[in-house]
Structures are given as C-alpha cells and as structure tokens.
Amino acid sequence: MKLEILPSLLAADFGRLSDEILRAEASGADALHLDIMDPHFVPNLSFGPDVVALSRRTAPGFYRNVHLMMSRPDLYLEKFAAAGAQTIQIHVEADCDLHVELARIRSLGVKPAIVLNPETPVERIAPYLDEVDEVLVMTVHPGYGGQKFIADCLPKVSWVRERRPGLDIMVDGGVNGDTAVESVKAGANQLVAGSYLFRQSDMAAAVADMRRRCAC
Ligand code: DX5
Ligand code: ZN
After folding, report:
1. Complete domains list, the chain, with CATH
2. Considering 35, 38, 74, 168, which one is annotated as catalytic?
3. Which of 68, 115, 140, 207 has most ligand 1 atoms within 8 Å of CB, for mutation?
4. Tens digit of pLDDT for each residue in 170-195?
5. Which ligand neighbours the alpha carbon of 147 most closely?
6. pTM of full prediction above 0.85
7. Taking the CB of residue 195, how many other CB atoms lie within 10 A of it?
8. Closest C-alpha to ligand 1, atom 3
C-alpha cells in the first residue's frame, strides 16, 4: 500500500492560512486534511466550506481530504463537494442514513470514507466496508488537535486490514514520528498529523523522516 502523509490544517496558524497551505504542499505531503467540526458532534467549532475553497484556490493540485465531525453531515455534502472536497469522511456515529449518504458522496464525484471514534466498536463499520474508498480510525477523541495518541485503537486498524487488504486505512490524532510507525505496523497506510507537522520549522524534513521511519 502507498504510504500517505496528511498534515491537518487545524494546527496551522489561522492568521496566515494561505501560506500554511502552501507550506504543507511544499513539504512533500500527499494531501491536506481539513477538519470540519460542529459543536453538537464534538465540543468545538473549526471552519467550513470557505476554507476548503481557499485550499483549492491556493493549492489547486494539493488533494483535499475533508473530515466531517458533524451530527448531520448529510445537510452539507453538496456544499463541501462544490468547495472542492475530493474525499469526504463521515462518522459512523452521525445521525443520518450512512448507506444513502455514502452513495450520495460518490454521486457528487467525491470519494466516500467512513470514520469511527475511539469508543465505537469496529464491527459497527462492517456494513459499509464495500461502499467506501477509505476507513479512518480515530486515535484521539475528536474535537481538538494536540492530544495524546490512544494506542488501544490500533487493533481496529488491524481488524479492517485483515478484512480489506487493499483498502486505504487512515489514523488521525496524536500522530508523530513514533506513533506513525506503530500505526503502519498495525496496518494503516495514511497518517494524519496536525500539531506534530505544523510545529516544525522544517516540515519537509519531518515528512521525509516520517516516510523513512515508516518504510522500515
Ligand atoms: C481531531 C482531528 C484531527 C486533529 C489531529 O479532532 O480530527 O485531525 O487535527 O491533530 P493532532 O495531530 O495534533 O492530534
Ligand atoms: Zn481529522
């Protein structure tokens, strides 16, 4: 599986968003991860479709992976697709018909993905595995960047990898040089890293180092 590294824009300096998007692109990372939060689903708010559109304007060739931490993602799918989302990730804990919404994401020309929170049993995503292009296993409780990686979530990654050897499997939350390696060993091939990458003065060196360490 191709290893992919995705800086999370949530950890960027919001006063210089365009520059931060360009810095992430220039780092050699594979895609930009955009965290959309509503305060019903998580105890925080982040940003909306305008920032996805800004990312497209600023770095049109930098792939946009959009993570909807929302109770009703179904109400916003068209808006995020129109803004330039290329993958849309919706949570299995969301309050909508996931079979319908995953199909709708695909009909909008966007790749659908399913996400599960740390407390959610992995079996809950089984009915959707044939309908998605990617599974995201959260390794923190969503809502904030900069939290500690929950290694107890990794058996879920292995569970999915055993059943779908060719599927993209992502981890998100608390990923750094060490936890990236643990995640890849468990079967993940896509790594979201927010605070770890954005706090680096040389993001490109950190991305290259993560790639090298995960290849071993
Ligand atoms: C958590 C978000 C993550 C977050 C990761 O609510 O879904 O994408 O930005 O941030 P770090 O890498 O700092 O844990
Ligand atoms: Zn995320």
Report:
1. 4-215 (3.20.20.70)
2. 35
3. 140
4. 999 999 999 999 999 999 999 999 99
5. 1
6. yes
7. 18
8. 173
